[in-house]
Amino acid sequence: MTPRRLTLIRHPRPAVAPGVCYGRSDLPLAGDAAACAATLRPQLPAGGRVFTSPLRRCRELAQALHDTPVVDERLIEMDFGDWELRRWNELPRAQLDAWASAPLDFAPPGGEPVSAVLGRVRSFLAEYRNAGAIAIVTHAGVMKLFAAELLGLPQAQWLAMRFPYGEPFPIGF
Known about the structure:
Rossmann fold; five-stranded mixed β-sheet; globular; alpha/beta
């Protein structure tokens, strides 16, 4: 059997100041999506489908990579609610500590827990697990959960993962 391949791609750097919490906020890109796509294209499987989060920072790259990317709401980043577009160092320490102690279950005020994002990732995988080679342009949080599910990583390991902007992370499964 030919191994299936999923390539996760984190969106390019968004136009937001360092140290600001952003999840569902629909931010523009700081750079050129076409230049990023030109670098990525040779690293992707030929003829594969491209899926993308609906947020602009992902969608612009996906459109530069493929003529007809599939926009899928399940690939959107976590909703940080009241934390959105606030500096991390200005968020209430007690809330951050509560999130750190129970990352799957804690929801920022007005936001969603990581377990909701995990549910979306699982739903996507159930639908497309046998779809052949695909690329997904999405967000670091979503990428961590794809890696956790497909590679069977323990929580401490997937939480510690880092994904550079505009870089691919291929997974064979």
